[in-house]
Amino acid sequence: MPSYTDTVAAIGNTPLIRLNYLSDETGCEILGKAEFMNPGGSVKDRAALGIVRDAEAKGLLRPGGIIVEGTAGNTGIGLAVVGNCLGYRSIIVMPDNQSQDKIDTLKSYCDDVRLVPAVPLKDPNHFTKVSQRIAEELNTDKPGSAMWANQFNNTANREFHEQTTGPEIWAQTDGNVDGFICSVGTGGTLAGIARALKSRKSAVSIGLADPEGSALYNFFAHGELKSEGSSISEGIGNSRVTDNLQGTPIDTQYQLPDSESIPLVYEMIRREGLSLGGSSGVNVAGAVRLARELGPGHTIVTILCDGAMRYRARLFNRPYLAERGLELPDWLNI
């Protein structure tokens, strides 16, 4: 096992895990990139590190500076992890409709978490716009003291995935990857990995796994940003095409209802020993769809984003699930 000089050095180089029962069921190799094994517990550690290193290189983040961001949770945790390790304070603005487990996790890393009402993007009090104003006010008082991470439109996000995550997948599969698919929040993960893989093998099929309630499936399928339904999965889906997602070479797209993705969360616990969040369920459901579209004998990679315990009060709450037409398996004694 390698040893690291600090926590930041441990971000990335996560293993690929074969999802045995789904691989056997589809006749494809379905592999999950274990991003939940990053120090902050999610794939967003990569975006955080990429954004911080880019800001340092450009002189936008100076020693002792403040990182400000609006986030549904995991990017905030990643920024706090990186910031704490490198000597930066963090101010994180978060919508108050996120799971309490994730809010509490973020607060354990960051002493300045500001919860705001969940409102549409066009509202001036949307969490991303509030975080931008905070950074601007700090810089007005003391120029150069704060950096707004701007994860949705800061393309350092996708560039870091293009430089790290994509090449790791290529090396771990010895170039024998036929498809990659994942869901989108900022778009950085899908966009960066797609660029890295397509530059090495143009025939790689890139897929978008989109939960209901997001407008991206309809955009890529029909050219219209239109959302339908809703999902209990947090931190994925979008009502717009971000700068990170712009120009991403997407070959196929699927709209995945909770009735298809959430049961896979429980099946992965029972069959694979993996306790993962709802976004991983969407990703794995997308990988199964892509495997069936491509046919047996192909290798499909997806992202295992984070752990289920950040969503414990929802994923393991029978009444909450029942209200949404979902069930917790009887074998889960909760």
Description:
The protein has about 325 residues and is α/β, with parallel strands linked by helices. Helix content is about 40%, strand content about 15%. The chain is built from 13 helices and 10 strands. It has a 6-stranded mixed sheet, sandwiched between helices. Strands 5-4-3-6 form a 4-stranded parallel sheet, with helices on both faces. It is globular, with a radius of gyration of 19 Å. The model has no long low-confidence stretch (mean pLDDT about 95).
Which properties best describe this structure?
334 residues, alpha/beta, 4-stranded parallel beta sheet
The structural class is alpha/beta
From the spread of the alpha carbons, the general shape counts as: globular
Oligomer: single chain
- Order of adjacent strands in the largest pleated sheet: 1-2-10-7-8-9
Number of alpha- plus pi-helical segments: 13
Number of strands: 10
N-to-C span: 36 Å
The percentage of residues in β strands lies in 5-15%
Rg, Å, rounded: 19 Å
Query: Quick one: biggest sheet?
Result: 6 strands, mixed
Quote the average pLDDT. 96
Report low-confidence residues grouped into runs of 5 or more.
none
User: Into which percent range does the helicity of residues fall?
Assistant: 40-55%
Helix-strand sequence: EHEHEHEHEHEHHEHEHEHHEHH
